[in-house]
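User: Could you check the structure of this?
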Amino acid sequence: MALRVEDFDDQSRFRQIQAIPYSDLVGFVLDYLRRKSWLMVFFWSLCIIFISVALTIRMNIAGYFPLRNILFHSLLGFIIFPVLLIPVHEFLHVIPFWLTGAKRIRAGADLKQYIFYVTAHRHVITAGQFRFVALVPFLIITFSLIALIIFLPGLWKWSLSILLFVHTTMCAGDFAMLNFYLINRRRKIYTWDDADEKMAYFYEEI
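Assistant: Sure, the predicted C-alpha cells are below.
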C-alpha cells in the first residue's frame, strides 16, 4: 500500500533528513551539482560534448550562409527555442508523476531564482519513482533533438544543436536531485512536497 504523508509522523519508522523551502532550491541544487560522483562527471561531460558538437556545426556552416541567417538561428537556439521548450519539459514531468498515482499535480515558477517546477501536492514517492519523474523529460527531449539534428539541413542543425546544449544545462536541477539520491543510495528515502507551503520534505526509513 502506498505511503501517505501522515505515515511520516511515526518517528519509530521514519526520520526527516531534509526540509527545503522552494526559496532555497537553488542553493540545494548548486550544492549537489558540486558533489563529486560518476553522475556529475556524466552530466558535465554531456554539456561539454553538446557545446563541442554545436561549435563544430557552426564552423562547418561558416561561409555557406549569410551572417544574418546564422545570427537569426543563433537567437532561435539560445533564447526563443529554450523559452518555448520550458512548458514542454515541465509537461513531460507531469506524465510520469501521473503514472506514479499523483492526483494534485501543480506547476510553478520562481523567476527570482529562474526556476520552473512541477510538483505533486502531498504525494509520497520513492527514490525510484523520483528518478523516473526526473529523467523522462531529459531523455525524450535529448533523443528527439539528436534525431532532428541528424536529419534536418544546414542552419537547423546549428540552432537545434545550441538548443540541445542549453536544454541540457536547464536539466541541472533534475541532475542535482538525482545526485542527492545517488549519494544517499544506501538510505531508503521518500519525498513529498507541500505545494501550499512551498516546501519539499525528505524522509528516510529507519
